[in-house]
Structure formats: structure tokens, C-alpha cells
Amino acid sequence: MERLKDTKNDEKGVLSMIDAVLFGIIILVVAILVFQQFAGALTRERDLESSEFRREAVHDIQKVALDSTIEKTGYINLSDNQQEQVNLINITVERAIKDFLYLDHVSQDKEELSYDLSELEKDIKQIYKRCAWDVSRYYFTLKSSYETSELFLSNVQDIYTEEDLPPERAASTTSIILGVKQVDLTLYIWR
Amino acid sequence: MLRGKIKDDRKGIGGFFFDIPVLLLIIVVITVLTTSLYQVYVPIQEERDRIDQDRACVDLKNSLQNYQEIRAEENEKFSMEKLGSLEEERLESYLELEKNYDYNISFEILESDEVWSFGYDKNRVEENSEVGISSYRIPISLVDEGGCSHLGKLRVSVWRG
């Protein structure tokens, strides 16, 4: 009988072992869940911070780019079968964009008017490239439209519409006045 | 009665030895838990410090953009003349950066490589060596004495001193 009672003590020991293993498993599972929550919260905080920085940067880039001066640019007037070079000296990027949008619109609207605006477009893009990529290392896309004309510039190939832009981007929209109309100019940046 | 008490004593001795593997298991679990806690806590803390440092860097940039002493009078552009005469102590007292951070600020004209630099340990802030340094670069407009506008770069770097 006494030996049988001792055997019962052995079983108690095994039960304690199972308790300890269960304790260990529960503690580890809870710890892993807590760590995952911490890591998730930290990742969200980091993402939020990155998007805040991008928002700060896009406003700075847009403001400086629009105020920048293009020393010499121009376009070719191809109306009436002529080829007249029109030079624009020391104009701001904002003015260059307005000229581009207006001339592009009238050349589409009136058959007798035609302009080659590639130089103007190239110089606008060059200023944005210097501000966004050369200084801040951001890829950019600039988008604006006026009546029938559209300006869409990017330093990344294969981006033709807003749908091609990556989701983790920041945007800044500035309104400029062209004639009597308000024109929105949107700059997107991303890394 | 006595026999009954002796039986209890044996149980106690037997129970203690049976508990040793259980105690060992608990010690192992707690050790693993503590080690993994430490392994997770250190990178999380480093990341939090990094985020705080990045924020300090952006705050510093915003303070500079609002500092009228280096702005041209007629517009919001930075004045090259005022940057040239700006005293380091004056800028430092204006910025009031937290004491555990050091900083370096440089204003640079893109087309001429002319640079105005302020702050500490300038040699540490090199391009492509930004380990432990938060750096923020934005384009700026600078105006010379003749009123001509130049495209430039403002770089603000912050690190733990």
C-alpha cells in the first residue's frame, strides 16, 4: 500500500512538469504576440514619419521650383508655315508653365496656330529635376491641365498617367491663375 | 499517528526532487524570454531614437526657414549677404536644439559650389557617410547683393552628440 502511495507522488511530479511546459508555451506565445504588436506599431510610426517627411519635402520642392528662374528658354512659332524662334529671358518656372499650357491649348484650338514647345517643356522639367532629384533624391511627376492642353512631366520612364504612380507618394497642389481661370499644378514625389 | 507524519515527510522530500526539472524548465523559459525581450527591445529603442532624431532634423529645418535674420528683406528667399555675416553663436541661440543633439547646416549654391556652413563636427557630415546621422536636403532660393536669384541646396544634419 505504501509503495502504491509513492507511485501517486510520481504522477504529481509529471503533472508539475506538464504545468511548467504549458506555462512556458503560454509565456512564449504571449511574448511573441506582444513583440509583434510593438514591431507593428513601430513600423506604422516609421511609415507615418516617412510620409510626413515626404509631405514637407514636396511643399518645399514645389515652392522653390515655381519661384526659380529660367535664364533663357523659348519656343518655335510654326504658324503660317513660318519657323520663328521666340526667346524668353529670365522667366520664372510658373510663367513658363503658364506659357506652355496656353500656347499648347491655342495650337490645338485654332488650326492656323502651331507651336513647337519642346524647349520650354525641357527647361521646366530640368528645373524640377534639379530641385527634386539632384538636391533631394526624389523621383517626381508634375501634372497640370488647362482647357485642352495638358502638361505631364516625370524623371521616371514608363509613367504616363497618375495611375502609374507608386502608392507611397506625396503630392502638393498649387493653384496658379491663367487668364481668368484657376489652374491646378500637382507635384508628386516618391523614392 | 506517527506513521502518518513520516509518510508526509517522504512526500515532501520526493516532491522537492521531482520539482528540480520543473524549476530548470522554468529557469530556461525565463532566460529565453529575457534574452528575446532584450533582443527585441534594443532595435525598437534604436528605431525610436532614430525617429526622434529625424523629427529634430525636420524641426531644425523649419526653424531655419522661419529665421528672418537670414532672409532677404523683400521676399522669402535666403540672403547670401546675410548668410555671410551670420555669427555661429547667434544662430545657435536661435535654434535652441535639444542638448543631446549636434547639428550641421550648410547652404550651397548649385551652380558655383559656394557654401555657408554652420554647426559642429563638419568633417563628420560627409555625403554617403550618414550612419547615425539624420539628414534632410531641400532646394532653396538664394538672393545675391544685386537681387539675382540662385538655386541652392539646404542640408540639415543632426546626430547624437
The amount of beta strand of chain B, in percent, is 15-25%
Using only C-alpha atoms, the radius of gyration of chain B works out to: 31 Å
The first-to-last residue Cα distance of chain A is 79 Å
Largest protein-protein interface: A-B, 43 and 38 residues
Helix content of chain B: 40-55%
Oligomer: heterodimer
Q: Regions of chain A with pLDDT < 50 over 5+ consecutive residues?
A: none
Strand order of the largest sheet of chain A: 5-4-7-6
Percent in helix of chain A: 40-55%
Describe it for me?
- The complex is a heterodimer of chains A (191) and B (161).
- Chain A has a domain at 65-190.
- Chain A contains three helices and seven strands, in the order αββαβαββββ.
- Chain A has helices spanning 2-67, 93-109, 118-135; strands at residues 69-77, 84-92, 115-116, 139-146, 149-154, 170-178, 181-190.
- In chain A, helix 1 (2-67) crosses helix 3 and helix 2 (93-109) packs antiparallel against helix 3 (118-135).
- By secondary structure, chain B is of the alpha+beta class.
- Chain B has one domain.
- Helix content of chain B is 48%, strand content 24%.
- The longest helix of chain B has 64 residues, at 2-65.
- The radius of gyration of chain B is 31 Å and the shape is rod-shaped.
- The A-B interface holds A 2, 5-6, 9-10, 12-13, 16-17, 19-21, 23-24, 27-28, 31, 35, 38-39, 42, 45-46, 49, 52-53, 56-57, 60-61, 64-65, 67-69, 127, 130-132, 134-137 and B 7, 10-11, 14-15, 18-19, 21-22, 25-26, 28-29, 32-33, 36-37, 40, 44, 47-48, 51, 54-55, 58, 61-62, 77, 110, 136-141, 149, 151, 153.
